[in-house]
Amino acid sequence: MKRFLEIKKSLLEACLLFVNKKQQTISSIITSNKKALLSETKSSAGDKHETGRAMIQLEMEKAGAQLAEINEMNAVLKKIDVKKTSKIVCLGSLILTNKANYYLAISVGKITINLVDYYAVSTNSPIGKQLLGKKIGDIIPFNDAEILEIN
Questions:
Q1: Going by C-beta distance under 8 Å and a sequence separation of 6 or more, which residues neighbour residue 114?
Q2: 124-142 exposure pattern, b = at least 16 Cβ within 10 A, e = fewer
Q3: Could you tell me if 138 and 150 are in contact, meaning their C-beta atoms sit under 8 angstroms apart?
Q4: pTM for this predicted structure
Q5: Which residues are CB-contacts of 26 (< 8 A; sequence separation ≥ 6)?
Q6: With contact defined as beta carbons under 8 Å apart, do 70 and 22 qualify?
Q7: E strand segments, the chain
Q8: Phi and psi dihedrals of 110, rounded to 5?
Q9: Distance CA 94, CA 85 (A)
Q10: For all residues of the chain together, what is the average pLDDT?
Q11: What angle do CA 80, 72, 92 make, to 5 degrees?
Q12: Separation between Cα atoms, residue 122 and residue 108, nearest integer Å
């Protein structure tokens, strides 16, 4: 039990680190785009100027959407209580199967802890949807894996 708690803490920390790195990257893109937008000066080639501004504006909108996605991920991670255990797969569950190990949180991909691979998946992902509500002994259609343990 204690072993699983430590693994879940490490997985949650890895997810938080992933989100923080993404947030820093997007924040620097936004800052860079704001500077570019301010430095974009009107030249004799007016159309070129307008095209440049429009491109920067599109990049800003894209970055804004990515920032909203990151805020959503942070909100999901804040809901997770690593101490909570359940016999049914739910948000924050650590799921061990005969084929792979999953952590139901946000889509991060493979996270290796103590030489063991875990796949952090979102509840909205195809595999996450198949895992939700499952119990020990259930088979996941995704890869015909049997759930051996839920924590």
A1: 7
A2: ebebbebbeebeeebebeb
A3: no
A4: 0.87
A5: 63, 66, 67, 70
A6: yes
A7: 94-97, 101-105, 109-113, 116-122, 139-140, 145-150
A8: -75, 130
A9: 9
A10: 91
A11: 20
A12: 8
pLDDT higher than 90, residue 96: yes
116 strand-pairing partners: 113
**CA angle at 148 for the pair 85 and 112, rounded to the nearest 5°:** 75
Instruction: Map tokens 């947030």 to a residue.
Output: 23
Phi, psi values for residue 99, rounded to 5°: -120, -35
Of 31, 88, 96, 100, nearest to 64 by C-alpha is: 31
Report helix, strand or coil for 53. Answer: helix
pLDDT given at position 9: 97
Q: Dig out the tokens for 67 from the structure.
A: 């920032």
Query: What's the distance, Cα to Cα, between the start and end of the chain in Å?
Result: 8
Sign, Cα dihedral of 86, 87, 91, 93? positive
Beta bridge partners of 45: none
C-alpha count within 13 angstroms, C-beta hemisphere, residue 34: 8
